[in-house]
Amino acid sequence: MSWRTTIGKNLQELRFQFCQTSEGSKGVREFIFAHYQEMKKANPRFPFLIRECERLPARAIARFDFGKEIPIPLDGLDKDAVDKRLAEVVGWGTVMPRSTESEGSFRTSLISTIAVDNAGERMYLGLTDGQLEEHRVHTLEQEVRVSLGARKHVGKKAVTAIVHIEAAKQLATLCDGVLQLLDQETLEGKHVPGPKGLTAIALESGQARRPRLAAAARTGKRSAAVVVYEIFPGVAALGPAARCVSQAELAEPLSVKGMAWLGGRLVVATSLRYMLLDPASGAYVQLFALPEEAPPPTLVQAIPGADLAVLLMDQAGIVVDAQGRPATSALTFPDTPLALAAAGIYVLAACADAVHVYDRTAAAWVQTLPYLGNARAAPGQQLASAQGARGACVLIAGFRRVWLYRPVALEEQARELLRARQYSAALALADVGAAAGGAWAPIAFAEGAFLLLHELHFQEAMDALRRCSPTPVQPAALFPLFPGAAAPWATAAPAPHLWGLHAPLPELRSLISRRRGGGGNRAAAVHGSGLRNGEAAEPVGDAAAAVRIGAGGGAGRGAGPASGNGLADADMAREGGAEAEAKRCIAEYLLEVRERPGVEALDGVDALAATLLAEQGAAGRLEGLLAAPNAAPLAAVACALRRCGRWHALALLSARRGDVEGALRLWQDLASGAIKEAPAQSGAVAEAAAGGGGGAAAVAVAHAAALLADEAAVADALALRCLDWLLDAAPDRTLGVLTARQRLPVEPALALLRRRSEPLLRSYLEHLVLDRGDPDAALHTELALALVVAALRLMPPPNVSMLAWQRACAARERDAAGGAAAEELRGLRGRLCALLAREPARYDLGRLLAAVAPTELWDEQVVLHQKLGDHGAALRVLALVLGDIRAAEAYCTRWAGGEGHLALLDALLRPGDGRPPLYAEACHLLAAQGAHLDPRRVLDALAPDMPLALAAGTLAAMTRTALHRRRAGTLSRALHRACHLSAAAERAELMSRRVVVTEERACRLCHARIGTKMSAVFPNGLLVCYKCLRKGDPHIPGWLASNLKTSGEDMHMSCWRASTRVTSPY
After folding, report:
1. Which residues cross the membrane (predicted)?
2. Range from 540-554, 655-669, 903-917 carrying the lowest mean pLDDT
3. Across all residues in the chain, what is the average pLDDT?
4. Which architecture, in CATH terms, is 111-407?
5. Domain 13-98 has what CATH class?
6. What residue spans define the domains of the chain?
7. 410/601 Cα distance (integer angstroms)
């Protein structure tokens, strides 16, 4: 009889693995094709498993017991050789020793599920025979002891799920598809009514007043339901233990294997897919789907307190948030986990050989914890896991063993990692602790920074110090590195209260030379891989199967020190380069930390930062520090700045410290070239030189002018002394200083400008008169005379006619110089005319008129004559000199009126100087303005020899206009008189009316008797009381109401106190 029809009773499973296309698997493919049907018919309940994969060497695996398997190589064998090889191994009578895991498995029940309370003090085991066991966990210093506390029979079949509900002090158990709630003290309880055939339960880990429990059940061939219960505290003898708050239906043919709460939603896992369900609305979406041919196992694990969950996808763990989106990078497992658990920031993957710990925040492997006793999960076996909501412990259970894992405190992990010289991992843990508000995190940052300083990792050290506040370690703790620059504050550096893992800081050069020479101690040593994530120390365990998580290293990944350092490259081999790098990093740190509150010895911090920046040539950052508010003492920093040639920075600091005269002296020397600024890649001098702005001289002049413009910083006497230098160095900036200083004495400044610069004098006078509004008449007169002088300089010489000069200017305007001169002249004359036209005129009119009279400044003469009231002279200039009759008419309309028109007419008819009369212009003036003039005065003004024929039409029109105005006035008076008589007659008629009020008279509106009440009567005879009158128009008082209308008629009202018989005028 062939072995294929009589398989040995000790064999439990036979698995084939081969490639579908390789030549080495051809024999296995032919064997299966020829004999699989025969083997399956002869052994219908025996499991034959076939796995096909490319480039997989052909073999078979015979499993006899838990973890007892024999691999059978079949690669390269033909069909008959495969049959012979299998017959040698799996024939009748072949047997292997039974594993310790299965000893007594036929005599006692096995563990089917597990749970633990939040404190990790009670452990609950669900067994395959329906028993529930409570075990008390006693944690000692070096071991963990467990004692059986109670046992409860909850069903006839295996307990498939246990949930500890701390808020309600109950246990939720799932056995035989029925949900029960048990009191955690007595284990007494009752069934929860609802659907039968429940397959999974999940507890919401929020802080709600009443916890919620979700339960999933099959409700049909292609449907499932998720019911959410609200759990009441305690298991009451009367009344329900839970209340159904929602129920959602899923169109899912497969049973629900697991669930996890994400905020107010549920992640539901079946054998083929993961779904995100909203139990309140019943809406759900599919997150991930697995292939139906050979789906890997599905697991879902909630992360307590984070609203996250881990979904198992073959050998990867996907961490999703409440929206179902990946929250971090995927966790890559070495093998498909049999169970998942979470504790704080760690995710534990229980595989067949060991438990692998991952940091979910960094998606990095942390630690591998082998099962104690070299135990190993059998093929096909599922492990159970449980963890408390507070992360106190994690439980992994096999069939007959439970492994208890307790996480090591992050503070202790960070300290151990620092001792193990794994700085990157320690600082990453400190970041997690800082996010959680741990008081130890700043200490870990500071301790790591000092250790990195000892290893010359200056940039990493300063980055670590930036991540902690000044409370555990002040910036003054770095003063020992620079005993010379920080000598005045040597005693001000407080000793930091840290963990004592680092040695005291020596002087920087001593530190570098000692490290280069290999003289560092162990506490200050770092290996080359200490800046990489993922390294860990050796695990710490005990004899009671309690293993601490988070600070250990696992199988195959030692933590021994390595050689080499990425930061110690060829450029940093020289001590000078290391010192420069250290000064640069420390200066950057000091510049950043000085802005934080709570920094002590700030003057020392600023002095050291300024010294380091000066020595490094960082002129830009140095100037920014010293120009802004700072606490650096001038005496402590001046020597370093002079030594490094940072004169501009020294002047900035001097000005900031109140030594204004010293700052101005430095800038004067820098502008004159008496001192030279050291070269630099940044800073104001370097930027000015690169931009073509004049270099150090331009920078010095600009800053000196800005300082002189500050009245609060520079006294007037010092400013006046420096103005003489500034006029030579930068005349354009002198005016800015003068205009900025509002309290500067005017006379000394004007005296200086009169000697040095007429344009600046004129501009300063314009500022005083026009911008500041100084009422001094002398200043107004001086400004006007200065403008006159400047304009005359740009005008033609006295012996050149204006026409010839204008022609020359027109020819010169083709080039830029001529155009600029003409534009300047127009601007000067415009400002002069505007000044002369200001009201009130505070200048000396006589002096100005005497100055402009002999010149050709005609517009200015017109303004001055107008100010003096000599309109005739102004009109003669406009009409006879400039020949602008329209301007003369406009002048008369604005300033002179009718007298001015007559004066203009006289000027046109009698121009004088032998010039002929301007009859055409005179007739035009009469035609335009004659209607507004007295004809008789016009006739008197006409010259005796003027031909009347020229003005006959104008004079006739003037006469007709005068007659028309007289007749129109007469008619207007008559019309006004008629209107007055009509109004007086109407008033007389109204005043003649009377009304009689008796005791029987009543109001026409409310029918109340008038009696002695106030009343009113309207022109149409309507009599009303005062109350009804007020209702009709509440905004008009009764004694003032008028022009009211009733039935379309005008009404007038009169009010009085009525008597038995009263007559009153209306």
Report:
1. none
2. 540-554
3. 80
4. 7 Propeller (2.130)
5. alpha beta
6. 13-98, 111-407, 869-965, 991-1065
7. 32
